[in-house]
Specification:
Elements (H helix, E strand, L loop, with lengths): L2 E6 L4 E6 L6 E8 L6 E6 L4 E6 L5 H13 L14 E6 L10 E2 L2 H9 L8 H14 L5 E5 L9 H4 L6 H6 L8 H15 L7 E7 L3 E7 L2 E5 L21 H9 L4 H10 L2 H6 L5 H9 L3 H25 L4 E5 H6 L1 H8 L11 H4 L6 E2 L8 E4 L4 H13 L3
Parallel strand pairs: 1-6, 6-8, 9-12, 12-14
Antiparallel strand pairs: 1-2, 2-3, 3-4, 4-5, 7-8, 9-10, 10-11, 13-14
The structure holds adenosine-5'-diphosphate.
Length: 399
């Protein structure tokens, strides 16, 4: 079986063609600068080949067509025709309260996705555009939507309700939704497999630390608490996002700097986080390099990020009344041994201890805890595309 996984952003579109059973990735790539000019990077993992093309992409439809052309090309393709693609799985950022699971896309689902736009004005329109473009270029092909928010729909009301007038929840849907759900789901299941125990018996804290970051408490396989909120701005400080702050700061900045609400929100989304504190970069590699050279603000950004992540792991454990395993994943979690070590430094009192030699790895599935640790610390590369492909295959098979 071959499933095409699509992750459409406003001006970019990532794709993977894979077999959800063998997990083989036949081809993957990225369309960039959609609506500007258009660039396609196409990779074939089996041969390590990489191709780059400038292709006009005025809209997402041309981008999808370029992907299909690349996949079926006699020179660098991996399939003979589009007919070999069994179905398409789409990543959708926000499913609101309408979607607690992945779903086969039909007109009713499209209407529900449109209704979620006010909740994710930056993300959902791009996802919807990607779906429509696929429907246009591949009419009749089964399509499935997989939501970043779905996994967190199991959170109890005490975790998702904000302490503001209740009507804002019932009338305006203001509540904690949580994101990165596909990643938290995937790594928690891999963790159970690595530990050789049923997920129903485990309390796991998963730390997705990348450009965007979130921590999730997973009790018996269900998300019961997570750090991102109504939007992906909440929780941990991130590359450019502020994470949780005192909301009064917004009014204070508007008044003291004569800024509009849009300007302040832009600062909190795009100029804050470790970029804002370090003044160096949003990329942790640059920040770690600057800190090593003695840049104090870069060091402060790292210290702040690790400190707040430490606190989130402890509070996620408290939400479950215990912890069996903590999992690190995504760009920073998978790659930075230094940050992992710093994050767990103060958690020895909870039985979380890592072995420096075992921690000195990147991008592999491994247990990095010491022999006397009572909590397993696991490093697990995430694979959201695989979950999307597997959900898509299952749903189109009617299961
Ligand atoms: P996204 O949220 O965009 O999917 P990723 O999960 O790819 O992000 O993570 C990107 C982040 O991972 C960047 O901030 C990058 O600095 C960080 N990262 C990647 N490799 C390393 C590394 N070797 N050391 C530290 N940070 C790294």
């Amino acid at each position: 079986m071959k499933i095409l996984v699509i992750n459409a952003g406003s001006s970019s579109l990532k794709y993977q063609l894979m077999d959800p059973e063998t997990e083989e990735v036949f081809a993957k790539g990225l369309c960039e600068r959609i609506g500007i000019d258009g660039r396609l990077t196409h990779k074939i993992p089996a041969s390590d080949a990489k191709y780059e093309f400038d292709i006009a992409m005025p809209t997402h439809a041309e981008a999808i067509q370029a992907v299909l052309d690349a996949l079926t090309s006699s020179a660098h393709g991996v399939i003979k025709s589009m007919d070999e693609i069994d179905a398409v799985g789409h990543r959708v950022v926000h499913g609101g309260e309408a979607f607690a699971h992945s779903v086969v896309i039909d007109n009713t689902v499209m209407a529900a996705l449109e209704a979620c736009i006010p909740l994710a004005p930056l993300h959902n329109p791009a996802n919807i555009t990607g779906i429509r473009a696929c429907q246009q270029v591949m009419p009749g092909k089964p399509m499935v939507g997989v939501f970043d928010t779905a996994f967190h729909q199991s959170m109890p009301p005490r975790a998702f309700i904000y302490a503001i007038p209740y009507e804002y929840y019932t009338e305006n849907h203001v509540r904690r939704y949580g994101f990165h759900g596909t990643s938290h789901y995937y790594v928690s299941h891999r963790a159970a497999a690595m530990l050789g125990r049923p997920i129903e018996e485990l309390k796991i804290v998963t730390c997705h630390l990348g450009n965007g970051s979130s921590v999730c408490a997973i009790d018996g396989g269900k998300s019961i608490e997570t750090s991102m909120g109504f939007t992906p701005l909440d929780g941990l400080p991130m590359g450019t996002r502020c994470g949780a702050i005192d909301v009064s700061i917004i009014e204070y900045l508007m008044t003291t700097h004569d800024l509009s609400i849009e300007e302040v929100m832009d600062i909190l989304n795009k100029k804050s986080g470790v970029l804002g504190v370090s003044g160096v970069s949003s990329d942790f590699r640059d920040i770690e390099a600057a800190a090593e050279k003695g840049n104090k603000r870069a060091q402060l950004a790292i210290d702040m990020f690790c400190y707040k992540t430490t606190k989130r792991i402890a509070s996620a454990s408290a939400a479950m009344g215990g912890i069996d395993a903590v999992v690190f994943t995504a760009g920073v979690g998978e790659n930075s041994a230094e940050l992992r070590a710093k994050i767990v430094e103060n958690l020895a009192f909870m039985g979380i201890k890592i072995d420096p030699a075992k921690n000195n790895v990147r991008g592999v599935e491994t247990d990095i805890s010491t022999a006397d640790a009572t909590v397993h610390t696991l490093l697990i590369p995430t694979n959201e595309e695989l979950v999307i492909a597997q959900d898509t295959a299952r749903l189109v098979a009617g299961k």
